[in-house]
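Ticket #4471: complex job returned nothing on first submit. Input attached below:
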Amino acid sequence: MTNQLVDRIRDALRVVIDPELGHNIIDLGFVYEISVIDGAVRIAMTATTPGCPAIRFLEEGVASAAERVPGVRSVDIVMTFDPPWTPSRIEPIVRASLGFAAVN
Amino acid sequence: MSYFAMALAWLFVALALMVAGLGFPAAHLASPDTLVLVHVVCIGWLSVAMCGALFQFVPVLVAKPLFSERWALPALGLLTAGLASLLAGFLGLGGRLPAWLWLLPLGAVLLVGGFGLVVVDLGLTAWLRPVGPARFVLVGLASLCATVAFGAMFAFTHAGWPGSIGETILTSGVPLHAIAGLGGWLTLTAMGVSYRLLSMFMLSPDVEDRKSSMTLAAGALAVAVAVIGGIVAIWLVSGLNVVLSIAAVLGLATAALYGRDLIGIFSGRKRRQLELNTRMAVLSFASLAAAGLLGVVLVLTGAFAAHVGAFTFLAVFGWLSGLVLAKLYKIVAFLTWLETYGPVMGRAPTPRVQDLVAEARASKWFVIYYVAVWFGTLTLVAGQASLFRAAAAMMTVGLAGIVREVIRTRRLADVARSLRFPDGACAPHLLFARA
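Support reply: We reran it on our side without changes. The output follows.
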């Protein structure tokens, strides 16, 4: 049941995009962890650059999208840059479409 | 956004003056008309645009909020009033307006107030985490203080107030004022901000601290030698040649080190396809390199003093203005996206930042602008003042096209209709940003 809720939350987060890269944050690998205990959701996520002005909107967007999923009582977002995000976290098919260099 | 709109308005004023043939090259470099033109460009256009960009990006550089959001608008008001007063004073000096020379010190006081607010606000913000690019901003702000101090002294001297010391500084100190402003304040700050912007938009690793520190040290030393050494030389009445030669060598070294850092950023990028703002920034880097080369050739041929106007024009309009315009194109799109679509993220599908712009259409205006600047530089070297006016007209056409694109971005004119206004999104105001 919890796993299904995590999957539904993950799907819901696909509406949130990184404005620069133009793809959803799940395919870009921004979401490190989604955990649920009794409807209380904790999402650990990152962004491409610390200090980016879009971070606040990414956090709010993720919280907003997760809160709309039936079964979610509360959402706690943890923004972390440890480990830092790298393009290697992007889904391969999306990475190819973005024209990235070979990931190192 | 208000800073950018005001800065662009002043740039149009400057281009109109150049097309009309007011100031250099039609008039002498030190003439009141040239002083009007130079200060419209350096304060109205470049400094106001740089301040606007720094209010956005210093918080990004240090990952901390601005010391005070509230100071930005009063600072813009003081800068605008101060510049208007200063220009009226210059026009009075040239006999185009009544000779109310008190307008010059009044303008200086207002500009000291405006730049003072900017320096304290940005300085206290950058001081929180003075690493990497933030250090460039701090050195740039210190140079701004030196520039403003020289300028204020000149303004009071023109009004006949500080006596013989002021006269001495005014007679010899103009190059120091220009080096502190164009070299220290505008160039070092632009370099610092460009490191972060290029890395961010190309997903490239930040330049190693050791390398950027070396570049900054060379640049800071160049400005310090010029300003402090220059004051000592004026004091000792020994002439500025030695001091300016040392500063020039250090300036060239700074440009070369900056070039090395840029190559590192470009070669380490993860994103291979370059956006328009980056491609156009490359043309400004090429202009900086060309200005350095032109300076060396002019010095070696003993023609630098005769062609200092051409050298400065290329540095100001090719390097600094080109970079500011290229980044402005991106910054406006990014801010407009944050303002319009940031608040509805997670609730509705949103476009990308790139969906707010039409790069293929915008690129031709940038190319027209750069070609006009390079052509204008050649006309100055060749001493063809009438052809220079044609180059200025061509620059105006390019700028008008770029501004049209920026206005289309603010109006979301290029966003697909289905994505333009998701539920809850508000249309951005043309001149004021809510985010």
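Chain A has one domain: 4-98. Closing as resolved unless it happens again.
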